Amino acid sequence: MSSAAPLLLLTLLSGGGDDPWLGPPEGAPLLRDETQPLRMGWLVRAFYSNSPPEAGAPGATADQSGFQLEDLDGFLAYETPDVAVRLSVDLDEAAEGGDVLVEDAWARWQHLDWMALAVGRFKPRVLRSNAVPQDGLLFRERTFLGAAFDRWDDGFELSGLWDEFGYFLALTDGANGDASEHFLSARGVWALVDEGFADREGALGAPNHLRVVLGAALFHDDGLSDGGFATDLALTFGPYGFHFEWATLGDNFTREVDVFDGHVMTLGDGHPYATTLSRRIGAHGELGLRMQQADEADDTQALGLSASWSPDGGALRFVADLEQVEGDTRDFSLFTVGVELGSSGLGAR
To answer: Alpha-carbon distance 169 to 7, whole Å?
Structure first.
């Protein structure tokens, strides 16, 4: 295994070379020169969506529709076998008069083949679905659980990979500034069949044999005095991809998620899960089916269909989603189409 294998953090760094866990980069990010350790690039994801009045605020009488700039991100990265640094910023709020948001801002030191230390601002790894880069998503949005842990925070992480096993141990501020409470997470992964593969959804680029990866995580938020346990299973077999995730969340553990254009849900004190099945169409197209249960106060369930296609498997991709959402107080459908251009620099596509 390469000495650069335990590439840190939840994201498993960009352009993972030939390490089986990271996978070879399958689409050349814009402005990338494979011969240089210094790289930069950008990612744009823009969508148009339409849904009935029930998807909007209480009392809405008009269909909910419009364009949304989902992501306008830029990154700068420097990577060698021993040291790596990454800075990424989110500019979509700034494009509408808001602030520039810093996402990744970390440095990693590779000491041994099985141990790396990352320090700075990053997204703690809890589930595979929260670790997938934006340009590695099969649908427009993450799963309920993936969105719940899609948060950047300040702290440090130890990580390592050897043979078919890997681990990720993180301690962060817990998004509460200088307060004493922290967020702790510990995740382990095990390649049950064949070798590990990159954090991405679907089966694009998958070999024509079975690969299975099992993951499990413990997490605790001191600020909420509560935590939970999560597990997931991902596999690919030729043109087919499968992913299942489940978590048990403590009574006081709460996370707000918005994956339906403003329809906010609060996860906590439940057992949310999601199942995703996909089928590759040709070399660069894919169809996806997703069923998920939020198990929150409104008992929200969703059934989603997705279709995506890239002309050449590179920096341009088209995505279409249809979601049917049901709950105790709100039932609606959401249709969305969009375009993705560029790269997150994390080697997802």
So the answer is: 13
